[in-house]
Amino acid sequence: MKDYFKEQPTKEGFFGPYGGSFLPEHLQQEMDRITDAYYSISKSHQFISELRSIRKHFQGRPTPVYFAKTLSDELGGRIYLKREDLNHTGAHKLNHCMGEGLLAKYMGKKKLIAETGAGQHGVALATAAAYFGLECEIHMGEVDMKKEHPNVVRMRLLGAEVVPVTAGLKTLKEAVDSAFQAYLEDPVNSIYCIGSVVGPHPFPMMVRDFQRVVGIEAKEQFYEMTGEMPDNVVACVGGGSNAMGIFSAFLEEEDTTLYGVEPAGRALTKGEHAATMTYGRPGLIHGFKCYLLQDDEGNPDPVYSIASGLDYPGVGPEHSMFKDQGKVVYTTAGDSEALEAFYTLSRKEGIIPALESAHALAFAMKLARERPRSSILVNLSGRGDKDIDFIVENYGLGG
Ligand SMILES: *Cc1c(COP(=O)(O)O)cnc(C)c1O
Band of the pLDDT at 190, cuts 50, 70, 90? Predict the structure, then answer.
């Protein structure tokens, strides 16, 4: 177990039958270059100490673990929150964007390229680009640009170029295609930065490794507060990066149960949810193998969740392996449960959570009711400021 992170993934990027890299030859060569650079550069003392300093002085790490006492007293179980909402830019995503940006700098790249759906990954990457003095190009569907206007303004303020994508449905899938195209035009000077533990090797490994800081901190902080290991660790799963971050520190703790919470949306019919591992089957998307919501021909199904950071039809390959191994229990929470948790945490604890994180919280609240006295560590992956206009307009002030 000690060497888990050295042994997984394999050299070719496989976690059991999942992951890998299924790309055209010329793109594969670029991925191999990134993999080689990652292995050689990211293990160097200089890289590690620079990233440490960035985390402490720029991002504001370590983020605290907080005991939600009011909520716990009411429910029975003890709920602890790893406060990634207090990480700079308000979510865990900056953890891997700063890592990817630093790697790009060491590789001599001039430009960071990515797609964004709701704009959260775009803002985090634009922040990293500004910090490192790199150019940044974010591809975003025109429909999403209208919906998420404040994030478009944020990215532009940070100096990023936001490229409107007008093809097809003008949302995330077309933005991925457009960003990939732009990257292919100049792979020497630019680097493609993926926003979760998904995509071809080395990204699932690299993003996981950059997110491990969340689990390493949380384990130590939880132990310091309680003198024990948590009985349960809970995180929401979109692509799976915040979940991999916190789970990574507890994989060898036999008495700790890990729960990944997928979005059950508004119904369990096709197109109304994004519970990939609960209802999907193995398939291929964006150059890697994983559980996938798909039709009979293997085309990705349309997906939906009230939390736009969770609506991806695939999922990280390492999670796919954990599901088969039974190492993590994957479960679901729907829109209405997430909303209830959103209102409850705001009122009872003075913390407005991201709608994504509210899915993890909804499940944790259920556990706390069922198991009085047991401890539950939740990864509060982000803050909810981005969601308040949408929620108040559509659902009111709650309570
Ligand atoms: C993007 C996002 C997620 C989902 O991404 P993962 O890779 O599954 O962690 C979860 N929470 C917040 C706050 C996000 O911005």
Answer: very high
- 381 among known catalytic residues: yes
If one residue of 84, 93, 196, 206 were mutated to test the ligand 1 pocket, choosing by the most ligand atoms within 8 A of its CB, it would be 93
Q: What percent of the chain has pLDDT over 90?
A: 91
Give this prediction's pTM: 0.97
Average pLDDT in the 301-317 region?
Answer: 93
Please name the residue whose Cα sits nearest to atom 13 of ligand 1: 382
Which of 265, 196, 232 has its CA nearest to residue 379? 232
Give the architecture-level CATH label for domain 15-56+93-204. Answer: 3-Layer(aba) Sandwich (3.40)
- For the 60-91+212-395 domain, the top CATH level (class) is alpha beta
Instruction: Give the Cα separation of 116 and 124 in Å (integer).
Output: 10
pLDDT digits (tens, 9 = 90+) for 253-293: 999 999 999 999 999 999 999 999 999 999 999 999 999 99
Ligand 1, atom 2: closest residue by C-alpha:
309
Q: Which residues are bridge partners to 257 per DSSP? A: 232
Ligand 1 close to Cβ of residue 238 (< 6 A): yes
Q: Whose structure tokens read 């990023």? A: 160
